[in-house]
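Go through this chain for my students:
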Amino acid sequence: MRIGIIGAMNEEIIELKSVMNNIEEECIGNLSFFKGELKGKEVVLVECGIGKVNGAICATFMKSHFNVDMLLFTGVAGGVNPDINIGDIVIATDLVEHDFDTTAFGYELGQIPRMAEYKFKTDETLRDIAYDCAVKAFGEAKVWKGRIVSGDQFIASPDKIKWLKEIFDGYCTEMEGAAVAHVCYTFNLPFLVIRAISDKADDDAKVDYPEFVKLAAKNSKTIIEGILERL
């Protein structure tokens, strides 16, 4: 079994890379993929870069070049559900591209024309394992399962948070997950997206984000390690 792991930023993968064994680097273009072992499993780890296109590129390489059997995306996000706090964990049930808009043709916001699905569902088994691991590590009150919404926007507006909650019932928002989910749906590749909350996506987001991103990344690492131990 080979498992792909993606994070958007160095802060989101450095913790995992630090505990990998037998690392070999393979470069494709300007991307560095790190092959090795983690918790006794064969893994491929990459920092994809920020945004949906970067996420989709790396997810595609994970399947087409490295032929991974499943894909995990880990990192940080801004909270949308008002009950979710900084440091909490959101395990995606499904993901939607909130900035995809063809409503002029009668489609719903987020809906992708001529595709059978646009609410991309995560793998149920991976989701359940991740939830169990997260609850054991952080307590049930800090772990959530729900929809993650993605777009090429850093959200720092109370009005936009309200909109994402009302329109999509989003739990948190970030910039890559739904694009990775879109690729995995296309390739029929089991996947899961896990996000630790680094900010509340409001007026204080720019202040909160740098302070909490490293802590949130450590929390995500704990869950990824737990998942690998259970697979």
